[in-house]
Here is the input.
Amino acid sequence: MKVDGGVGFDLAKAGETAKEAEDAGYDGVWSAETSHDPFFPLLLAAEHTQRVELGTGITVAFPRSPMHLANIGWDLQNYSQGRFILGLGSQIRAHIEKRFSATWSKPASRMRELVLAMRAIWASWQDGSKLDFRGEFYSHTLMTPFFNPGPNPYGTPKVFLAAVGERMTEVAGEVCDGLLAHGFTTETYLRDVTLPALERGLSKAGKKRSDIEISCPVFVITGTNDEEFDNADKGVRQQIAFYGSTPAYKGVLEKHGWHDLQPQLNQLSKQGEWVQMGTLITDDVVDAFAVRGEPEEIPKLILARFGDVIDRVTFYTPYKSDPERWKAVLAGFKTAV
Here is the structure.
């Protein structure tokens, strides 16, 4: 199992942060598209590292055309010498329409076509094949030499797709190289819902489970004293509550029989009661989403829960903690593996 870290948003520190992660032994570093661009930090990370994989977790796909994503992915794959992973996500309808002023419709079908269109563009550059992609949502039929970057010596980038629902998970299995499981994923949901959907997608493309990587962020509650444990516990509860308020993720809660929790959280979120939302997350909910223990216990706890299911893991810690502690956890993780 690979263990990944983050690169952060501060461009002045991105290169240094990535180098520290590589030196500590992480297998990959990821950036996210929240309040900053997800690609710039990885360009700097590529400049200052030699081994770690570099991925977006995630890039919001729908506001961008397949051509935009193809160009960016091509350049980062080349500059990183084959270490780039293009991690895509759909986001939710309100953000696509109201924040990005972009089109939202049939998200799983649109995402499938976007990835296939991007792959057709890459094939025209890599193999010289005629660009003639015509779909329901995207059409790419023009590629002149002036706009063709030519073959990439490191091949095409890997494409990972974030998914919670079954249909999007099937798309990941069918057309992508990896699945980015959401932090709002329990072991039960992963085994009973995600994996069967992924297998259905793989079978459509004649692929095997070994042809795809599953990456999963795992909530971790840890510390070296009671105060640190309490702060970690509070941070995790509030983050679970934030995700749980989103209607698109209610299936995870319903899988566990917590049908009433999502509407309550959603109502409080509309009122801006973010702190109160965290108080609705009971211990059994926390235990379903998070592992809890002393730092040296974390590797075995994660492996016991997910060791036979996922291929990559990141430590999800929505609270302040000492980076040196995670280096020690990483070292223990490698030993446990």
About this structure: The domain at 2-222+293-336 is CATH 3.20.20.30 (TIM Barrel).
